[in-house]
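Quick start: read one record
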Amino acid sequence: MKNETKGMLIGFIGIFIFSLTLPVTKITVESLNPYFLCFARALLAGILAGGYLIYTKAPIPDAKQIRQFAIVALGVVFIFPLFINIAMTTGEASHAGVILGIMPLATVVAGVLLFQERPSLGFWISALTGCFLVCTYAYLNSEGRFRYTDFLLLIACAANGIAYAIGGNLSRTMNAKQVISWTLVLSLPINFIGSVFTFQESYLVASASIWISFLYLGIFSMFIGFFFWYGGMAIGGISRVSQVQLLQPFCTLLASAILVSEPITLMNILFAGLVITTVMIGRQMLVRRGPAV
């Protein structure tokens, strides 16, 4: 239980960092193309990651690990950032934050299917209840319908869930910082080419707030946040720590109110309390972990 508690606390720091991603992205896409933002922020993070790997003299990954890094990169470097960038050009950060609340379920399912994690029935009920709550909130908040951007966010959730599970599993056999660092470094060529071809001269005169937001996305959302997130899952287990993600939508709601002036309603508070309750219940459910593969 001590390791699970420590893992959840470390994982929450990562989730708090990630919770600012949507409102900060909404600020950034006011001036930067969603495609450029996707490639350029990963390029910045990849340069930092390369410096970290050189400084720590990290060992070269083997062929099996490189294949896993490629899958992680597809989710966390390309699909997830690009789809949320596109969604933020027209949607609200607070609404998107609630939709992303289903990521814990995607992460748990990936952990169960890929790495022999075996949550109890009570744990499944808790996870499904939490995801049902956030989906109900999203539906009600859209006046009884789902938006086009909701489907982009659902695809992003699925891709990120798989990537989170694989990255968390890798972090059980190697340093969590090296997992995200190698992922970013191996994707550097694509991100460099993509950044060059999507760059526009108008970006040079973008406001300071745009570039500060860009730096946050590249340094924290794409790099440092994973130090805590993968490290937490390595200590506490994919299924257990992934439930901390249920708090992310409501951290995002608060960040959206502060950064982009989106209101926090009574419905926000009610659903926040219900979801937090499912996290507390799920934490008490026994989870048997499978071996790292």
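Residues 208-236 form the longest helix (29 residues).
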